[in-house]
Amino acid sequence: MKIVTGEEFGINSFKVFMAYKDVMMLEDNEIIECFKTAREVGGIGQVHAENGDVIVENQQKLLKRGITGPEGHPLSRPEEVEEEAVTRACLIAAQTKCPLYIVHVMSKSAANVIMNKRKSDGTIIFGEPIAASLSCDGTHYYHRCWKHAAAYVLSPPLREDTSTPAYLMELLAKGDLDCTGTDNCTFSSAQKALGINDFTKIPNGVNGLEDRMSVIWENGVHKGVMSPERFVEVTSTAAAKIFNLYPRKGLIAPGSDADIVVWDPEKTRVISAKTHHHAVDFNIFEGMEVHGIADWVISRGKVVVEEGEMKHARGAGKYCPTPPFSPYVYEKVKAAEELREKLWVPVARSEEDMYVDMSGPYPQKDDDDGVANQHKTSFSLDQHTEIKTDASRDNKPAIDSKPQIRVRNPPGGKSSIMF
Question: The pTM is what?
Fold first, then answer.
């Protein structure tokens, strides 16, 4: 980590997976070591937060019950699986003093953990909902068309609670969540069909990169939930600050890169796989009419979109290093540590307070080796030495003496057995 955060590479964020057991999943002790090192080198810990062990158990149970379709995906990864992992990630980050970035926040409960942890104990956490979680829900997994249902498979999954997108958008608008991504990872229907008979083999990933800005403007600004200024923050400035690209990126000012979007807030379009630029045959926002179009886009002073038409040249992109110790992040870390230092104070105790009488008493041991002697007992038969007799009982037959009587009609029914 120390090497890649240097000037040669310029990487300041390190992502760990709490899911995908036996593939990419790390155990807690491994995550602790990653976060400790990330903190030392001025990095940011990123987490895919799902309980991988629980997911594997659920997958096996569902397959045994004959559930092989895309509906098995959300059933195996219920909301509490994400919530628990986010809680655990926040705990580890707090204990290692490592700033934490939760990628693709997909549920209400996960968002609530981030919000509450940040407010309650000052843990430095950034929460990132994505275009999919801000616009779609998990009812699609139960669509009768397998192709349609499988197209929405990503992890963590979209949530069946249809109010989730609006809830996440509200938190994003208020600042309880920080910025937006897409987790863009597209697969064609033919590729998704690798799991046509086993939902655990469906490639995970959806589109979002091309439509992110319009989708967030539509569900945020156009619906009156988010201000235009906050829209710029969550789609550009916040990420630039967190990953130490600001003010080169995320700002229009002398000395910054000339990255400018000319945005028409009233123009509309209908999203469709027939017109998008992704090399896939499905779009999870299919049929959604959105307000907000990028008429012109300028990247580092060059026009790359003109009146809605792409003008880019292949290979024109440029790598942007992200130096360690982002001021926006580590100023928060420093403030949290200063607060913790005020709390981590030893109790002042005088010599009298520390006095303990060392003369005893001490517990008595049975043997020198501290092992109890099982043969010792306080029980005594002395009080039972006198033998008492009962003349009336002495004349009674012994307990094993059975009369030779044929029982013909006992209460339980007739019998011919000899006793």
Answer: 0.84
